[in-house]
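Project standup — Tuesday

K.O.: blocked on the structure for the chain from last sprint. Re-posting the sequence here as requested.
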Amino acid sequence: MKAQFVWPLKIGYRVIELPDDYSYVVIGHPDKKYLFIMSRKPNMDQKLMTAIVERCRQIGYDVDKLVSQEHN
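H.V.: unblocked you, prediction finished:
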């Protein structure tokens, strides 16, 4: 997957995790610079979120920089 924030630069991203029900997706930069955890619902189960963050930590992402966005 590639995202283009400023033309003509494109940044490549990888889908790290995607469950069969597509309830969330974890996307990261190959150099581990960026990490996105996106849910179909405004609020994700806290146990699930904690488990996802720990798996991302284990593969080398700096999860201490993650910021949560509130959605209604």
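K.O.: great, moving the ticket to review. The helical segments are 46-58. Residues 13 and 29 are 5 Å apart (CA to CA).
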